What we know:
Blueprint: E1 3-6, H1 12-21, E2 23-26, H2 33-39, E3 45-49, H3 56-61, E4 67-71, H4 80-85, E5 89-91, H5 98-114, H6 116-124, E6 145-149, H7 153-164, E7 168-172, H8 178-184, E8 187-188, H9 191-197, E9 200-203, H10 217-222, E10 228-231, H11 240-249, E11 254-257, H12 268-272, E12 276-278, H13 287-305, H14 315-323
Parallel strand pairs: 1-2, 1-3, 3-4, 4-5, 6-7, 6-9, 7-8, 9-10, 10-11, 11-12
Bound molecules: (2R)-2,3-dihydroxypropanoic acid.
Residues 50, 72-74, 97, 281, 283-284 line the site of (2R)-2,3-dihydroxypropanoic acid.
Amino acid sequence: MKKVILAHRYCDEAVERLRRDFDLAVADEEGGLPACVPRHPDAAGLISFLSDPVDHDLISLMKRLKIIANFAVGYNNIDVECALERGVMVTHTPDVLTAATADLAMALILAASRRVIEGDAFVRSGRFAGWQAGLLLGKELNGAILGIVGMGRIGLATALRARACGMKVVYYSRSAKPRLEKKFGFARVTFLELIRSADVVSLHLPYSPGVRHLFNRDVFALMKRDAVFINTARGPLMDEQALADHLEANEGFGAGLDVYENEPAVNETLRRLKNAVLLPHLGSATERTRREMAMMTVQAVRQALGGRRPRHLIPEWKERLKATR
Ligand code: DGY
């Protein structure tokens, strides 16, 4: 039986399925991934989570490794270049989490714009003394401009939800989306136009070092003073300290964050600011989505170790296959 390492025991159904076909090592039960991998250098498959750094050293320890199936759509935790060099396939979990993640982005847009968390805290503190015309006034979404940075699957799903709230959508993307422009009236703009004009900016780019701190001090300063910044993508896309400073200096500016630059650490200033809504990386966290993600990783490992091409190879792998065809 081929050896497979599962970084974390999460879904019983997935674990049972893996045990049927493979000699399974669960890293959680062996002191974590860095401790478990050297004990199983013969591993042919690895199921990693986005919180597991799968770097050059770790990959190099598994000489027979054929596949890394990442339990996430983003895979910036993996040294893809090293995996490609060694012919180790890498898969991810696109599509199944699009709706759940877009729902959460929309929840953050609403929560940050309408002061939902402050309202909740207000009631719980016993200070609610009856309706008041000026109590916790927020920002209206109807007619406001949503700027989507990265019009991929999740960006589009978020834009469609916002459209239902009456928002006008502009987007910044490498490639034009004429079909979406025609069908939904979305407008493609430059990055500068987007950050200057949007009332809400929602970030949906995959992370790579080239876009580290895309949202930095200068960019926040160019945004509207009462804009809302939403990040459900990856923390290092923003300079978290710069965002915290900007929020602190501009009470009217808002943020809704699901991801952080150095997870699980969260900037101290951010943590005490009322104009930031902070969630613990819950983008895909629904029962159904997480189960589907788990089963997708199992399927990817079974396909790869059964000699088939896994369905959800990352784009870099697909490009390599195209080039060698
Ligand atoms: C992903 O899959 O990349 C998401 O961040 C999970 O919530």
